[in-house]
Amino acid sequence: MLKIGLTGGIGSGKSIVGKAFEMMGVPVYVADIEAKRLMVSNEEVRKLIISRFGHGIYDSNLNLNRKLLAEIVFNDSESLKAINSIVHPAVRADFKRWSNQYSQIAYVIQESAILFDTGLYRDFDKIITVTAEEEIRIQRVVDRDSAGREQIVERMRNQLSESERIARADFVIYNSTELILPQIDLIDKQIRFLASR
Ligand code: ATP
């Protein structure tokens, strides 16, 4: 079974592409969603978060105060590093466990915005990057999140450049005005061929 990473910058269309693969029957692990789940449901992760950020970060029902955590890490890079050093290894281990159940099938996908920013890309056999023109990505996120343009542009500036992501990918899906399903279909065939060798 091959492990495939699916990445792309903000608003590139990672989620939409991940959903398309899922509809074709490919198991897709969405790192962002699983990270949020682990912060609540994994006792070890909870303990580490409490020891770094204090008991007040969870309420009495063990709900994480995400707003408070976001404020802390947004204003303090050491706290951001700390939360990442707790959550990233937990997601990595959880993905390994999760993928074990699919050992008999051709491939699984992990969707993650930060594959190249962390050492995570090394866990994957092949990487797919989704890309779209910057102006289109900005407009899609403005429409999706009702967010301010400046805020989105700022987040993009903090991410890896599109050209770097494309250079480091094994497969690229172009999602500006192109049709994505034929591209996904072709990549699926190529990965299945690689998996069968
Ligand atoms: P983020 O990193 O911000 O979560 P993402 O890469 O997962 O973004 P999506 O959420 O898949 O991106 O796409 C961003 C928005 O653009 C969504 O509202 C999605 O429905 C829309 N979108 C993506 N691709 C297309 C497309 N080809 N045509 C029209 N809308 C699209």
From TrEMBL:
Keyword Secreted in the entry? The reply is: no
A single GO molecular-function term is:
ATP binding
Its UniProt pathway annotation is:
Cofactor biosynthesis; coenzyme A biosynthesis; CoA from (R)-pantothenate: step 5/5
Which Gene Ontology BP annotations are present? Answer: coenzyme A biosynthetic process
Residues annotated to bind ATP? 11-16
One Pfam family assigned to this protein is CoaE
Q: Which reaction does it catalyse?
A: 3'-dephospho-CoA + ATP = ADP + CoA + H(+)
PANTHER family referenced in this protein's UniProt entry, alphabetically: BIFUNCTIONAL COENZYME A SYNTHASE-RELATED (PTHR10695:SF46), DEPHOSPHO-COA KINASE-RELATED (PTHR10695)
Going by the UniProt record, its keywords in alphabetical order are: ATP-binding, Coenzyme A biosynthesis, Cytoplasm, Kinase, Nucleotide-binding, Transferase
Species annotation: Labilibaculum antarcticum
Q: What name does this protein carry? A: Dephospho-CoA kinase
EC number of the protein: 2.7.1.24
Q: Which NCBIfam families match?
A: dephospho-CoA kinase
Question: What family, per the record?
Answer: Belongs to the CoaE family.
